[in-house]
Design goal:
Rossmann fold; alpha/beta; 2 domains; two-stranded antiparallel sheet; 278 residues; 7-stranded mixed sheet; 11 helices
Length: 278
Amino acid sequence: MKNCISNIRTQLQDTYSESEIKELTYIILEFVTKKPLSYILANKNTNLSANEYTQVNDIIRRLKNNEPYQYIIGVQEFMGMSFKVTPDVLIPRDETAELVNLIIHNHSNTAPSIIDIGTGSGCIAIALKKQMSQSSVSALDISSKALEIAKENAQNNEVSLNFFCESILKESLDLHQKFDLIVSNPPYVRHCEKVDMHNRVLNFEPHLALFVDDDNPLIFYQAIAQFAEKHLNKNGYIYLEINEYLGKETAKIYQNLGYHTKIIKDFYNKNRMIIAHK
């Protein structure tokens, strides 16, 4: 296995940092050998089978092409749970976990009805249901393929959700029910910001879930505000992940409708979340 570890590091040194290579090495070996890290560390002198070496080399090839390792192995950990991910859904990120933890902190002693708009892999909705088991949680997405993944993740993580295959941009959208909490991590990256993004995101993650037109970057936040006018219960809350450059503009949408808003920074000290409460 030592030779394999050395080969991984040599092959990836021009594409990844030293810390990334160390993490990827163990991710690859855990995935290929189906053994935990503790076993790998204790058995570095064992040899991989020919089939395992072939798998390792295939993964290395894909990694050198900047394909996210999460899509290669098909899973991503999020808040202590395992989520299936494919190129049909965004890879769950730590910033989104901050949003989920904020909701849990603020509403842990209640049993709210919640809807997650643009659910993707279902990570937000599933994590909320897991931590707030008495709540009723719904998940909405325009992509039927994304909803298939979300449904599978809900089943694998043993939670029950309500699913809606709808577009939040549909003006006539009416789910015929109301919610105490609306949460969303909608598309918010402007095309002009692509220059700052890594090829691992640009070339592999779903653009439908990422990008908005430069001339109307807040289209989804406006749609969510309209949705809330019809579907948010009195004294309800809206929790949003936002574009760090458009915090004030996003908050103003809700302020103009009578909401009290608060912009919250993430652990990188960037404007990343908004709470709106009327």
